[in-house]
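TL;DR need C-alpha cells for one chain.
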Amino acid sequence: PRIVGAERIDLATVGNERDLIGVLAQIKRAEAAGKRSVLVVDARNTSLGWGSLEEVRQGLIRVRNTGGHVFAYLEQATIKDYYHDSVAEEIYIHPAGSLEVYGLSATKLYFKGALDKLGVRVEALFIDEYKSFHEPFTRTSQSPADEQQTRAILRSTYNQLTADIATGRRLSPADVAAKIDDAPFTPERAL
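>> reply
TL;DR here they are.
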C-alpha cells in the first residue's frame, strides 16, 4: 500500500479572522500542490459563520478541481458542518455520531415588554416597513413585513444550501431537500 501524508484542517480551531486566513492559506497551498494534496477536514464543533464556511467550501472545491483529494470527518454534524463537507470525496461519520440536518430557522428576541417594566422608553427612527432593526426595542413581536423578509431570506439561503449540497454529493436539490426532511440520520443511514 502507498502511504500518503494528509494535512488536517481543524475548523474548530478557527476562532477569528486570523485563524481563518491561516486555514485559507493551507487550502491555497493544497490547491497549488494539485494531485499531491490530501486534505482531511475535521468539522467538529465549528463556530464559523455562513460566509466563512462558503469561503472554506469554495477553497475545497478548487483543491478538488486541481486533482487534490478532500476527505471529511464528522461526529454530531449539523447542516452547517455537512454543507462545507459536502464537497469531499468521502465523508466519514463516527460510529456513535449522527447527521442532524434539520434545515434553517431564525429566532429574534423582543425587549419592549421588559424595557416598559423598567420605565425605559426607546426612541427609534422608522424609515420603512422592511427596515426592522428597531423592532426588538419598539415591539413585543415580529411585524408582518419583518416576518415576510425573514422567511424570504431563509428560503433563499435554504435553496442555495440544498443546491450546493446537491452539486457536491451528485444528487438533485429535491433529493437533498427530502433527506433534510427525513433527518436525523445514524451513520449507516447517512451514507
